[in-house]
Amino acid sequence: SLKFTPVGDIDDIVVKSRKAYDERQWHLYRTKNPRKEDLKLRLRQLQNLYYGIKDHEEEIVEALESDFNRSRYETFVIELIPLYNHLLHLIDNLPRYIEPEKISESTNLFKLSSVQVERISLGSVLVIAPFNYPVLLALDPVAAAIGSGNSVVLKPSEQTPATAQVMEKILKKSVDPSWVQVVHGSVEETGKLINNPHFDKIFYTGSTKVGRIVAEAAAKNLIPVTLELGGKSPVFITENCAPGNLKTALKRVFFGAFSNSGQTCIASDYLLVHESQVAKVRELTKEVLDEFWPTVNSKTINTSMIHDSAYKGVIEKLNSTRGEKLQPSDAKEQLPDRRIVPTVVLGVDWDDSLMENENFAPVLPVIPYRDLDDAIRMVLKEHRNPLAMYIFSQKKQEVDRIMTIVKSGGCMINDTLLHVVAVDAPFGGIRESGQGNYHGIWSFAAFTHERTVVKQPYWIEFVNGVRYPPFSTKKLSL
Ligand code: NAD
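That is the input. Now the predicted structure with nicotinamide-adenine-dinucleotide docked in place:
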């Protein structure tokens, strides 16, 4: 089991983190070329972290299996490969990110000056991670924070204890403690961290409910936050999804709904289908479910619900829904260890319990609609700002209309989920689904302050002199 960090030690850990950061800045201050030295130090930590993860790959896979039966394949596809991509992308681009960016300023006053934006490190930052992608969503922000020059305190999810321990081991072995420390714990320990005034940034990934608690605590100390929260992401299959594409569309929707057993922040959470497509969707759903899972057992259905209450909650919803449940034909009985057989529920109403919150389970409710406007009105009324939105339609004008009215964190047209792995595009939510972006340059921006630096040559005084007294109307016309 996971040993929580004693609450009494937590303030010292934060002070140590801030002190380590300050000492590093003094070290840079004393070097001949601080930026070059800073780059070298950051890169060394990032490279060590990359190899540290690589060296412990198998332990990570085993830990995730022991925490919630995640398969090796899934851990690689949805967690380790994206993590490596992000890390290598950061290492490759860091020399560019760290250089001040020249701005071509259009005000005449600065025509003869140099105007630059420099992204400066913040200090000591807190990263709080969720359980569902416990490695990626912890180590990706940690790497971004290091790359941006900060010291980090990581609070992994206590719901995945084995993974939390492996990550601590990797970090201890590969990264200098002056850069990263780990605090284990649950509500009390995290509460102590978020109320500490010495952090310079909090990067939180998790539920919207806890996001509010984090934002409130941070606001007291004016600590900036990035909040990567949840939400119920809708999928539209409109009347303009071509019949020939419907099967592929469903495969893509199910990939989004059933990966990690549905425990994905940007999962396809519910499916809105135009009534003209419903019969075909029903027929093809059966076909695709049988193709995906010709056999249904603990070997083919891996990832479990994270804990008993999550499991019971889903079973209750499935028992109470009035919709028609479709599962792979081979699914005969319940599976052990909190596993749930992928289930598509047809003919769901808006007042069904499956439509209340994120399902976070391999369950996809399908709501038929007649009028697109009505369907959109319900989306806006019930779940106004989803983290993602997926639209399957061949008609550009229709796609544009949906995108105009529904403001989501991200969006895919004719697919699901994959926008999250685009390394050069921002990822983040809007309002209840989050604040701030990361990935690529946006990860760097999340952990730095953009400082404008204007350098004035002395020789431009003949122009700049107009600002000094004595004033005259003649000076105004210059
Ligand atoms: P959670 O909010 O329960 O926990 C996240 C973290 O907050 C954990 O480290 C936990 O220890 C801590 N925490 C829990 N209760 C707390 C409290 N009262 N005070 C302070 N800290 C507390 O989330 P989870 O169940 O681990 O993750 C699932 C949620 O995260 C879903 O809502 C999902 O949509 C969201 N999520 C969002 C993203 C994203 O990128 N936007 C990614 C993954 C998950």
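The first helix runs from residue 7 to 30.
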